[in-house]
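Why do we bother with a discrete structure alphabet at all? Because it lets us treat a fold like text: something you can write down, compare, and reason about line by line. To make this less abstract, here is a complete entry for FGGY-family carbohydrate kinase. Read it the way you would read a sentence in a foreign language you are learning: slowly, and without expecting to understand everything at once.
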Amino acid sequence: MTMGAKEDILAGKTALGIEFGSTRIKAILIGKDNTPIASGSHEWENQLVDHIWTYSLDAIWEGLRDCYQKMAADVKEKYGVVLKSVGAIGFSAMMHGYMAFDAAGELLVPFRTWRNTITEEAAEKLTEAFSYNIPQRWSIAHLYQAILNKEEHVKDVAFFTTLAGYIHWKLTGRKVLGVGEASGMFPIDIHTRKFDAGMIEKFDEMTAPYGYSWKLEEILPEVLVAGEEAGTLTDEGAKLLDVSGNLEAGIPVCPPEGDAGTGMVATNSIAKRTGNVSAGTSVFAMIVLEEELKNVHPEIDLVTTPTGNLVAMVHCNNCTSDLNAWVNLFREFAESFGMEVDMTKLFYVLYNKALEGDADCGGLMAYNYFSGEPVTGFEEGRPLFARTPDAKFNLANFMRVHLFTSLGVLKTGLDILLKEENVKVDKILGHGGLFKTKGVGQSILAAAMDTPVTVMETAGEGGAWGIAVLASYMKNKAEGETLDAYLDNRVFAGQQGETLAPKADDVAGFDAFMERYGKGLAMERAAVDSMR
């Protein structure tokens, strides 16, 4: 592997992916077989400045350079090679947010990240005007809220974009976005795979009374799909990325994508009727649709794959935090008796105990709301466990109800898709901490969705690897080769995964649990209102 990787590096048959996550910036270099051969990372944190969650420009560039430097050092240490070029590069970042620039390219206000919930009025008005769900974190909601607030900077906006779009622009000179990332700025017309022209016109009508000199289309980035070239690394860009000066300009760069799109690539779930569920501290499901939804649902976000297919997304703020807290309580109990506790074994025992419980959790109820859940209408959360005197209160049902409730909000949103909209799903890929204990979280999710769930034997490398694969696809695809085919045949071929089909009793049990879950939300509301 070392010799093959070194040859790939020297021959320029590599691809580099860099993704800005909320707590870590990661770089992954892959060889011609799309396998990671070097990596580097940089930890960072957002700041709350004047009630706005943000990252400074200095933090962005310092993080990018440090991340690249560590990856290049990894190459030098492993292969004895000074990295001077790669075959292709791609940049990705957490989606949404707002970065607005004037005609001179100066940032007008600090970067407003996806985490801010300051655009409720704008999101509601745009959703109503477009008949299309516009979440608060979308870039257009931030722009329109700034207009409604009569913020001084809006008249000077010459361009606005996302974090990934900003990085790409500064390194290539091109104001572009991949279609998946773009779909978190403004709605996409899935037939043209561009921003929806009718909605742009509607937005201009809504903002005309304010008298700005710009039209929306003039300040939006250009939209590209996976596989298209999105410019090359400029001399200035090479110096920004690699302060050592070793990196050469002229490297082709793929369209910048968001973390949702790179996650779909990393889990090979971009084909229609497929999806993925990421379940850890938070949980979200992404289902690739065959057609547009019949109705507007505030619980469902609509984005696209990197190829422009429509994706329904259910995002929930809470998943395993409360579950983990209970597991830690059992650890503390065991340690009180002088036992040494192996946490991996503890999770294994407790999770598997859940499989012995009653299908509907024996009448127990729990809510895992550490924070609010917009899908079920909660602005704050209080973790809660409740039972009736005659409920079957044992360890198996206790663990089962906490596993069920970790997917309760997700199930609420998915039922809208699967039962109201009759969306068809053939395959779901699960990834994240909930699935680390083999077979347990997987079977619970299969019951919740009444769909087979696959978990890969080896966890994917995540979004940085996903954007590296997109860069590789742009550089190496054959004539007419789709991204679906490229992933199936060149990236994931031969990878083993285990698929669990849903059991009828478990599906019925989860449905019975959800009926109680809906009725019991009044308890959660009372807890939020009374526990301060």
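What the structure line is telling us, in plain words: The mean pLDDT is 94. The first strand starts at residue 15 and ends at 20.
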